[in-house]
Amino acid sequence: MTDSELFDHYLVEFQPDLKKIIGKFKGLNHKFTHDEMLSEANLHLIKYKDKIINFTDEGEEYSKFCEIGFKKAAYSYTRNLVGWSQSRLLKNSYVRKRVDYIHKTEDGEFSTFEHLCQTLPSDEEHAEFDSNSKHKYVLKLLTEYTQSLTPNELIIIEHLKQGKNQYTIASELGVTHQAVSIAVIKLVEKIKNYLKFDFNTDNSSNKITKGNDAINSLFSNSREYFSPKDSKDLISFVKKNYKKHSLEELTDIFGKGKFEKCQILGVLNFSSLGNHIKKKVPNQSKYTQEEVDLIIKMNNEGKFVEDIAEALQKNIRNISCKCASMIKNQLIKRCPERKPQKPKYNKKDSKKMLEMFKEGLTTKDVAEYFKADTRSIGIQRGKFCRKGLIGLSKKSERNKKCLLQKS
Q1: Beta strand 108-111 with 102-105: parallel, antiparallel or unpaired?
Q2: What is the pLDDT of residue 398?
Q3: What is the separation of C-alpha 68 from the centre of its chain, rounded to a whole number of angstroms?
Q4: 81: alpha, beta or left, given left = phi > 0 and alpha = psi -120 to 50?
Q5: I need a surface site. Which of 171, 175, 251, 284 has the fewest CB within 10 A?
């Protein structure tokens, strides 16, 4: 028998002795059980099998591996392992922080785990998600699982959950209903910013379906992959049809559309054949000589660019670009102007606007009332100031003083 086979034979016969050694050195408070310690000892002996086989004792004159040498080595390893395993396990942070005491109660002694299982409340039963009562889940999330809301906001939420209106809440809290209204508006804005979605109109079923489809398309095996033969066929096809097909056309033609654009482009770029496909030319609006003559004529007449675009039935941006090109070619001297976007106010609106300015409202407030641009309202205010109907604003007076000081 070889030394390895002898080692296995000695280890099997040494199992009763191993149990005795472990029972002698393992204390009552050892973290491992007797069977766990026996398993650790066998594993440790097998791990250091070569060292035990080569173990020699000069005092006893063990020159070769034998049963006596194995027993001495196994005894030393097992005795030391009992202490090593205990200290190694105690250094583990999980074991150090673990609490396991004996609690004496009227019903008997219980461990810490058993005591907690009896005293802690049981988890709520999992209920199916009801899309029609999403607000309940949102309120539970905000009130129980987050700390984003202030105590006053939580009180307002509790009152709103009971169906109370702002006047009732104001009277119970001893504040004005305007204060409650402002608090509710700010509360709604905070919830929207925190949740990042509109919890009133969100159609969660569609979004879940869309997300599942995206995940399935990403991890499904339906995508076709290029084989070496496919790569060769694509390269030969592109070389034969030099710049005849664009990338979109090549995707539809080659392989009957089973490969995606990025796959085909990746193979072509790897083979340095990216310049063999036809580049997609952006759409350029072509103008006939009659259209060019019409642009020149209307521009000389002082027409606006919107009028020219309407006459030619083209986009305003295309007309502007064409006029810039015509200036470079010296066909026209300047580009046609755009129509002024200033809104026209009637006498009634101007009178209302003047009254609001006299009351001390700002340009922004007046613009919000008329649902107009702030710039156009500012122009109207300037007209009133020049006529002496109202005075300059604080900002305008400050700017005027600065200009006078500089001059």
Answers
A1: antiparallel
A2: 62
A3: 66
A4: alpha
A5: 284
Q: Are 288 and 255 in contact (CB under 8 A)?
A: no
Boundaries of every domain in the chain:
3-91, 132-195, 347-406
Q: What is the CATH code of the structural domain delimited by 132-195?
A: 1.10.10
Cβ atoms of residues 341 and 310 within 8 Å: no
Burial 204-223 (b: 16+ CB within 10 A, else e): eeeeeeeeeeeeeeeeeeee
- Amino acid sitting at position 369: Y
> For the packed helices 177-195 and 151-161, what is the interaxial angle rounded to 10 degrees?
100
Ranges in the chain, pLDDT < 50: 125-127
pTM as predicted: 0.27
Sign of CA dihedral 241, 242, 243, 247: positive
Q: How many residues does the chain have?
A: 407
Distance of CA 356 to the CA centre of its chain: 47
User: What does the block give as tokens for 95?
Assistant: 């074991």
Contact in structure between 381 and 363 (CB atoms under 8 Å) = yes
Instruction: Say what the pLDDT of residue 126 is.
Output: 47
pLDDT score at 282:
55
Task: Please give the radius of gyration of the chain, using alpha carbons only, rounded to the nearest integer.
Answer: 43
What is the C-alpha separation between 206 and 321, in angstroms, rounded?
42
